[in-house]
Design the sequence.
């Protein structure tokens, strides 16, 4: 079909040709024909990554194996503080190594990828290694070489770029390899090289030779680090000691996002074009220059957003990317073809071809088209889709022939084949029709920019980070209001910034930024409908008093409980020995910091004579089960039995499987008691339990029945206690009365509550996410069939499973039927809470064992079992769910190394409320395990606080806000422990208002980002000591540069406040000539000190109403005035 055009190609470096009239799939077919007729490599430059991936999928389907290669994007944003996945680096380095020797192949990439600066061509040769059976290999030397090449030393090799040394064994996952290798040494000689399975860690077949590529796109030798440090100092101003990236690299540590400093490791960088053979032909899909301009817009915008942080300086765009001129210059070294879509040779299809399922004959348009275009090639995306189309055509009497592959000969008649093209075309010879042409465009919305904010998660609520206009806040003196933004107000030729708050009846309150210590984020069960207080009424004071009384009762009850438990003497386990340490070493993952702490706290409890009652809190997959396993091992070692109680049969089975795997190498008997076991099996288990032949018994509430007799029960492990009924909880209380108890929960418990209950309720938090968990890509989209089909099909086609959440039992079966028609290749099951328990368990069990791959369900899955192969969730009517619910539902996916997706479907912009829109925007913009995790789980923490403290307390939290409630509880506990009896409300901080009559702000010109300014205002206002204030000042200078005068004024008045507030100073007014210090009537000041000051300093005098006036000798500027006032306040302290 394209012979004539291909014959005219002038394959001379520097030559440039344009071919018009190539629509959609015609371009792909033309490139295929080029490859088949001309013996040279072809590089296809696509407009964006999505197009590049589509071209790659289409070409790879059409061409022989190892013919088509994809050079992938890093899948990170420009200047991202995240590194690309190791598998991506592996693909890129493998292709770069192959390119120079490439004789005939097709390489597909996007413009944004092609303009990235790469390592020079000499890099791969210099940092590649070769290992041979029988060759010499010194382990220490190879460890050094692998580290220099960017490989990471780990405990267990699971992914590309990792290695592990155990005795004379070296495990290694080379870049570009499909599997890892195990090298066995005999002295310093390579004895064998074997492949092994990363999942089972078992060796498979032997090989004789192994080639190793570097693990990064830059070297990590001492020389490379020296060059990095030198070039850093040349390119960036300021002290590099304050830059974490510089420090990490200097210390020999690879830091996330280091790829965006790649040029600093080389004297000179290269580009993709340097790796291409001279006879390469470059094919441009549409306008390369426009695509380059678009890529540069994104790069420049990101650079401008991030360039102001001097603790994290970034390179100029031209140092990391080729500009348009560079790109065109590089392309000129090769022959070039541009394929345009101007209609001539091929033409677009009519848009009326779309199949209309509502019509009497859905294929009417297609049949009409076939009458005037008798030669049709209809392309399905997959074999399954071809079968679906074949069935549809057959049902509606559309004659066609089904074929396996794209025909090589001229197309005659109507043919149906598999070819994943996006867009069809029509020509004089035949017409090609794709699935998209028949079913409408299958598109994906763009993923929102990821926001990287380096901030302490524990302080997020208090620090007001990500505070958006309309959010509810609590003012300590005025109660709950709504934040309307930061506002600059000019008065007396100076500018000051205020937090603008709205209260009941639209009344406004302007809070000076220096008083932000009085403001905290409001968090209740429904923050969006927070009860706004009346300004000037006693409503807020009454709410605080009610809460304070209840808080006192709670604290007293908790202390009494603690004292009672402390008196009980329990069995004390022997301290962990070498056997326990060996068991711990067999844990196949690296313990997180929180997990390590939780294990140690649990073991300490078990080895003491105090009865253990510890709660382990952490999300699914964060490692709670390993804590339970370590505790169980120690208990069994000490001759005791262990019971593990779980709420469902399926969870019991999952725990049983996990315990069996973990204890397989040890003489420990693990058994299961559940409805999945026959009566005979259950009876046998009970007999063995009585005789002490079962060490660990896992079961549902069946364990609580009267016929269960342990020989010597020592430890009770309870999973998700809140999911048991009242009767079961009573039985549980009796059973656990004389044994150590370890309770596991996935309901988040706030760290603040943990701190306030320190030493009262034993609580271990596992809040650190496990390593290697990828953020979930979240899309908000209007509900459309093609979106659902695309999302579910993508997951199913990669062998995964899908949750489709439809939270309406009345219409759930209808929805499942619709999905069955929409996604015929899916194996669909339905699950909801109104089903019989046994039926529901069977459905969940089938899904767990992958008998079904699409589960249509209600929010019943909100807290459930861990299914790593389920990596797509589609939430119907996501606008009806709260932020915390959305977060927890989204957390059902993304529990493996695969990229996970969450689709939040809505009825369209007009059909959702503004509150729902805000929730959806929030969840789609928040990183799963970063700041968003803390914000989204905050109302779940309130649920957790209610569980620990009782239902009635939830109401008090709701009334005064979570942050103030926790602060009051912490103070009350401390006072009761110390034996004090005071009114906590009187002890709340009294703030001093200081009027400097000069601007005391962080100017926009110094720091443009409003959220960062808010956080810093809050941190400055929260400083409790001069040392902390000085440290913060140094940090700001480090990050953003020399402080402007207005910001120095802000620090000056904050320092004055630190001295004034303990003295109960209500207000300080400072003018050019004098200052007035206004004390509260109950100020704790020694009158003798005031008399002494008045005698010493003639410029001081007392005025009516507790006011001390200070007259300045001359107009001396802000600093001397503040220093004078500081001396006065210090003398009175």
Sequence:
């Amino acid at each position: 079909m394209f012979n004539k055009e291909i014959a005219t190609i002038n394959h001379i470096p520097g030559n440039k040709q344009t071919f018009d009239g190539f629509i959609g799939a015609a371009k792909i077919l033309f490139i295929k024909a080029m490859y088949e007729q001309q013996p040279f490599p072809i590089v296809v430059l696509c407009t964006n990554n999505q197009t590049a991936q589509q071209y790659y999928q289409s070409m790879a389907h059409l061409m022989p194996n190892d013919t088509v290669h994809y050079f992938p994007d890093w899948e990170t944003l420009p200047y991202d503080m995240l590194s690309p996945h190791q598998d991506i680096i592996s693909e890129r380095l493998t292709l770069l190594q192959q390119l120079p020797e490439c004789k005939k192949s097709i390489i597909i990439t996007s413009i944004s990828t092609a303009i990235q600066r790469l390592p020079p061509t000499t890099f791969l040769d210099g940092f590649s290694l070769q290992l041979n059976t029988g060759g010499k290999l010194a382990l220490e030397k190879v460890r050094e070489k692998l580290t220099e090449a960017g490989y990471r030393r780990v405990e267990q090799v699971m992914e590309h770029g990792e290695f592990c040394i155990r005795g004379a064994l070296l495990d290694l996952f080379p870049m570009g390899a499909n599997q890892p290798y195990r090298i066995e040494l005999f002295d310093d000689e390579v004895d064998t090289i074997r492949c092994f399975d990363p999942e089972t860690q078992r060796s498979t077949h032997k090989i004789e030779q192994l080639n190793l590529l570097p693990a990064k796109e830059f070297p990590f030798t001492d020389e490379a680090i020296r060059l990095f440090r030198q070039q850093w100092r040349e390119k960036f101003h300021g002290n590099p000691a304050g830059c974490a990236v510089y420090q990490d690299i200097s210390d020999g540590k690879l830091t996330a996002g280091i790829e965006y400093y790649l040029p600093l490791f080389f004297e000179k960088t290269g580009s993709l074009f340097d790796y291409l053979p001279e006879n390469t032909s470059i094919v441009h899909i549409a306008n390369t220059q426009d695509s380059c301009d678009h890529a540069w817009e994104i790069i420049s915008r990101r650079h401008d957003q991030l360039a102001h942080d001097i603790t994290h300086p970034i390179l100029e765009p031209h140092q990391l990317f080729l500009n348009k001129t560079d790109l065109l210059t590089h392309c000129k070294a090769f022959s070039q073809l541009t394929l345009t879509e101007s209609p001539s040779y091929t033409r677009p299809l009519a848009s009326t071809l779309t199949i209309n399922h509502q019509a009497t004959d859905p294929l009417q348009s297609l049949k009409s088209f076939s009458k005037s275009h008798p030669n049709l090639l209809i392309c399905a995306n997959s074999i399954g889709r071809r079968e679906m189309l074949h069935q549809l055509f057959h049902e509606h009497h559309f004659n066609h022939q089904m074929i396996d592959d794209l025909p090589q000969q001229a197309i005659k008649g109507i043919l149906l084949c598999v070819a994943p093209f996006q867009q069809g075309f029509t020509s004089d010879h035949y017409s090609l029709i794709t699935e998209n042409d028949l079913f409408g465009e299958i598109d994906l919305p763009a993923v929102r920019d990821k926001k990287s904010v380096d901030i302490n998660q524990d302080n997020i609520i208090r620090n007001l980070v990500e505070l958006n206009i309309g959010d509810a806040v609590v003012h300590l003196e005025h109660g709950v209001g709504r934040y309307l933004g930061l506002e600059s107000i000019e008065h007396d030729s100076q500018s000051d910034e205020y937090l603008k708050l709205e209260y009941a009846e639209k009344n406004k309150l302007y809070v000076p930024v220096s008083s932000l210590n009085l403001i905290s984020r409001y968090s209740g069960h429904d923050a969006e409908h927070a009860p706004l207080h009346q300004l000037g009424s006693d409503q807020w004071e009454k709410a605080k008093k009610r809460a304070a009384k209840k808080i006192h009762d709670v604290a007293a009850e908790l202390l009494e409980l603690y004292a009672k438990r402390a008196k009980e003497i329990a069995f004390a386990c022997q301290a962990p020995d070498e056997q326990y340490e060996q068991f711990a070493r067999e844990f196949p993952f690296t313990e997180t910091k929180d997990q390590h702490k939780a294990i140690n706290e649990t073991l300490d409890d078990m080895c003491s004579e105090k009865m253990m009652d510890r709660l382990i809190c952490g999300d699914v997959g964060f490692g709670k089960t390993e804590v339970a396993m370590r505790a169980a091992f120690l208990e069994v070692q000490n001759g005791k039995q262990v019971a593990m109680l779980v709420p469902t049969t399926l969870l019991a089975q999952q725990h049983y499987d996990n315990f069996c795997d973990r204890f397989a190498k040890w003489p420990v008997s693990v058994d299961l008691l559940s409805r999945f076991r026959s009566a005979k099996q259950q009876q046998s288990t009970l007999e063995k339990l009585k005789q002490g032949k079962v060490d660990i018994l896992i079961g549902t509430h069946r364990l609580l029945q009267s016929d269960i007799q342990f020989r010597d029960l020592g430890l009770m492990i309870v999973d998700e206690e809140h999911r048991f009924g009242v009767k079961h909880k009573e039985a549980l209380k009796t059973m656990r009365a004389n044994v150590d108890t370890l309770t596991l929960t996935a309901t988040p418990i706030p760290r603040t509550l943990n701190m306030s209950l320190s030493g009262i309720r034993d609580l271990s938090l596992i809040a650190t996410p496990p390593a290697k968990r990828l953020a979930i890509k979240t899309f908000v989209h209007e509900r459309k069939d093609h979106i659902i089909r695309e999302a579910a099909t993508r997951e199913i086609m990669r062998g995964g499973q899908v949750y489709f959440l439809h939270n309406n039992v009345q219409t759930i079966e209808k929805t499942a039927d619709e999905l069955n028609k929409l996604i015929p290749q899916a194996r669909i099951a339905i699950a909801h809470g109104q089903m019989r328990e046994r039926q529901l368990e069977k459905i969940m069990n089938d899904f767990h064992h992958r008998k079904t791959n699409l589960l249509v369900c209600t929010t019943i899955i909100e807290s459930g079992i861990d299914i790593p192969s389920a990596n797509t969730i589609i939430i119907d009517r996501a606008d009806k769910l709260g932020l915390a619910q959305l977060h927890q539902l989204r957390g059902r996916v993304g529990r493996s190394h695969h990229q996970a997706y969450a689709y939040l479907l809505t009825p369209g912009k007009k059909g959702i409320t503004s509150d729902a829109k805000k929730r959806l925007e929030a969840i789609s913009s928040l990183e799963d395990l970063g700041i968003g995790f803390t914000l989204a789980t905050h109302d779940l923490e309130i649920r957790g606080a209610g569980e620990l403290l009782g239902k009635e307390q939830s109401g008090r939290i709701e009334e005064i806000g979570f942050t103030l409630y926790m602060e009051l509880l912490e103070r009350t506990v401390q006072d009761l422990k110390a034996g004090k009896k005071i009114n906590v409300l009187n002890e709340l901080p009294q703030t001093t208002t200081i009027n400097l009559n000069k601007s005391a702000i962080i100017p926009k010109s110094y720091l443009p980002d409003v959220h960062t300014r808010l956080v810093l205002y809050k941190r400055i206002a929260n400083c409790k000591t001069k040392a902390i204030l000085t440290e913060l000042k140094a940090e700001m200078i480090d990050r953003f540069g020399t402080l402007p005068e207005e910001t120095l004024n802000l620090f000056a008045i904050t320092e004055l406040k630190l001295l004034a507030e303990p003295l109960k100073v209500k207000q300080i007014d400072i003018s050019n000539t004098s200052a007035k210090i206004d004390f509260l009537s109950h100020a704790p000041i020694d009158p003798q000190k005031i008399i002494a000051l008045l005698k010493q300093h003639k410029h001081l005098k007392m005025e009516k109403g507790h006011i001390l006036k200070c007259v300045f000798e001359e107009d001396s500027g802000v600093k001397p005035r503040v220093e004078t006032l500081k001396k006065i306040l210090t003398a009175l302290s």
User: Anything to note?
Assistant: The two ends are 94 Å apart (CA to CA). The longest strand covers residues 479-491. The chain has a mean pLDDT of 82. The chain is about 35% helix and 20% strand.
